[in-house]
Write a structure and sequence with these properties.
Trans-aconitate 2-methyltransferase; SAM-dependent_MTases_sf; methyltransferase; seven-stranded mixed sheet; transferase; single chain; alpha/beta; 10 helices; 254 residues; trans-aconitate 2-methyltransferase activity
Length: 254
Amino acid sequence: MTRASWDPALYRSFDDHRSRPFHDLLARVGATAPRRVVDAGCGPGHLTSVLAGRWPDAAVEAFDASADMVLAARDNGVDAVVRDVVDWTPGPDTDVVVANAVLQWEPTHLALMRRWAEAMPSGGWLAVQVPGNFDAPSHALTRDVAAGPRWRDRVALRGAETVYDPPGYADALAPVAQVDAWETTYLQRLTGDDPVLRWISGTALRPVRDALDDAAYARFADELAPRLRAAYPPSADGSTWFPFRRIFVVAHVR
């Protein structure tokens, strides 16, 4: 799995927008009395407590590939550990696995989801949400800048093929589970200066940040910012509407 560095505080600066898909995903999970619930890619752990609150009698396990995120999760009272999703397999008592906005970083995540579902007990629930906006202007413009002569030998970004459409996930999991797959585009209201740049700085720009030193990253951001402002102009009240497509998959294992 790609190990980009993470800034937990920056990531949580848009907490309301980032948390809403988690709650929408969880609402479609029908588990009543799971033995073990796993938050795979728990981030700063601020949503892990939601799992513990819904299933108070379950053992709740949390992990993330980022040591910084795990440290933040522990500060939030979550007993998280550093672990990569590709190195983990559900145990026989793992009745619920939630992977919220993490599997898009793993190129082989479709096969990984199938492996997890096959390892889970009958009746288990696998719930996954990934961003589906890799062909949106925010990401397409970032790739355009990265492909320029100044950056193309230093920055590598994945394209729109990073994630699948809902039928792709459904087809992969249908042999082993009853699948509910859908997509939602959230129209997010952002405020402040260069809000779209700030939003993607916490996620999509992490590989760029890791590839460049501070000065080079600042130049990259300066080159990208006016393109984003043109693609996402402010409304009359000064706020910016930012459509964000997300893809959801809930698999009930047979």
